[in-house]
Every structure is written in C-alpha cells, then in structure tokens.
Design brief:
alpha/beta; Beta Polymerase, domain 2; polynucleotide adenylyltransferase; Poly(a)-polymerase, middle domain; 2 domains; MTPAP-like_central; EC 2.7.7.19; PAP_assoc
Length: 357
Amino acid sequence: MGRLLVDLEEAPWNNVSLTDDERINAFIQFIQCTPDEQAYRERLLQRIEELVKEICPDAKLEFYGSMRTKTVIHSSDIDINMFQPKVGEIQKRRIVLSIRKHLSAGAEFHATARVPRIFFRDKSGLSVDITFDNASAISSANLQNEYADNHPVFRKLFMLLKHWLFERRLDHVYIGGLGSSALSYMIIGWLEMQYHKKNISAEQIPLRELLQQFFDFWGNKWAYDVFVLRPLTGQLVTKQSKGWTVDARPELLSIEDPIDRTNDVAKQSFQIKMIRAAFVASAIELGTDKWANAFAITFDEVNMHRDFREVLHEQKAIVDYGNSSDEENIQDEENENDTANKNVDSMDVDVDVATAV
C-alpha cells in the first residue's frame, strides 16, 4: 500500500493525515472494479451467452465467484457457469471453436480437469473460466454472500487478501497457490474461531489489526499437519479422522468444503510453505511503522488496467462513430427530403405558371 512498484500520482492511501483504516479503505476503493469494468464484464457474459445459445439454445449462463460475491478487484477472473441438460463433448468443443472465432483465438478446453472448463483470455486481458453444471460453485458463492451480508468486514478482508496474493503471484491454484475459494474459507473459519464463537464483533476491530492477526494465525499458529478446518462453525477435526493425511506432505492446508464435505478445497495449494512464509513476513511488517508496505500496486496490475482502458476506449469510439453515422444519415435524409420538397414545390409552380399561360 505504501510500497508503489509503479509510479502513481497522488496515491490516495499515501495521505499521512488519514487514519490507518481510512488509508486501507482508500486502497480497497482503488483496487475495486469500477462501474465501467463491471459493465464490461456483464456485456462479455451476454456476448458469450449469445455464442453459446447458437449451439445450445436452452443454455443458461450465470456468474459465480467474485462477480457473484461482490468482491471483484482489477485482477479478478470472470467465472461463469453454464446450466444445460446433457451438454456433450462435441457441443463443448463447438463452443470452444466459436469462442476462438469471435472472442479469443487462444481459447482452451480442459476436458480432464476435476471440473471440466473452457478457459480463455479476453482482448482486455481478463481471464474467463466457463464450467458446466457446476452447482456447487454457485452454492458456495451464495453461502459467501450470505456470510458477507451478516459480516461486512469479510468482503474487505477478502479483497485485500486476494490482492495480497496477486502481488506475490501466489493466487493461482494450478501452480500451487491459494485459490479464492480456499482463501474465503480461511477468512470465514478464522473469524468464527477468533471472534464470533466468543461473541466478539470483528466489525469493531481496526482493519490493520485484523490483517496482522490473520497473517499471524495462519503463519504461526495453525497446526497444518494435524487439523482440518470446518469454516462455517470454526471447528477443527483431525486429518486422520477424515483420511486426509498425506505422509509425503504433512504440511498441506486442509479445509472441508461446506457444500461437499468429502472435498478438501485447499489440497492443491502445494506451495503452502511459501505462502506461510509470506504470511509471517506480513504479520511482522504490519506491526511496524512501515506497515503499509505489506501491500503494493504492481506493474502487472497497471498493465492490465491500461489494456482494459484501451479496449473501453475502442468500444466507446465505435459507439460514438455509430451514433455520429446515424446522425449524419438522419441529416442526409433530411437534406434529401428538403431537396425533394423544393423540387416538388418548383414543379407545382411550373404547373401553375403553365396553366396560367
């Protein structure tokens, strides 16, 4: 937050006259999706749905993930679930081909993934994941929404910590990072254990203090080799009782999926040692007068923002051109009508004169 990896003019969170909470809230405001970005994401969903319906007319597409939980930051992926009875492999591959033709030549179909999905990167730089009949993802997002409505501080912590992972490139599960689902349940479980089960409102705790406590808990205090977290109740069960002990990797984080208790939502985060080390470092940093250095705006983020603004500018130019063309066409039609009317008037005069003669 205080550490700018790029040159930004008058970063609002660097105003030393602000309180710690005001600075953190200013940072959250900066990293959040703007109304223009939100509208662009919604238009992209509509465009994808149009392409999909050409192949599967009865398909219904919905956002899940951050768009559904209202925790979108600039770096957030677009997560879309497609509901359609009996979508075959051929139909899925036809959808990929259509996306390659109209939206992104690099669209990929990951047929063998645990949750089969289509992935592509939009021209604005946004990453898009399309899954099929992934009802558990919708249920998970709805659950997080309900929790956030009852505990508003959750959304602030979630956006800050998603950005914190993004800065350190620890946010991608496919390279062992910590995914948004696991992170959300880490926050919920920690809030339940540390505050709500003790009838303490986390809403009254300064954000800087909450962040430091979160990093300290998951960096220093959690027994990764012993326990599984049940997030909604803040309960602990042993890995052994769940049959989730991995002898070769006892340090792995384990979180029981509230939607499907047989699923460990954190099992693929094999870079957990690196993540824990980063937790510890940030916990220490937040206790110093350089606490704001725990967060930063990176070149990756600025480049994403620049690419996005360029696409928005192109779209606006096209719309403006279309509107101006319409206006010109209307003006041309009016001019043609005026000319035609004048010709008619002239003909009438000629007729009258001829008749008079």
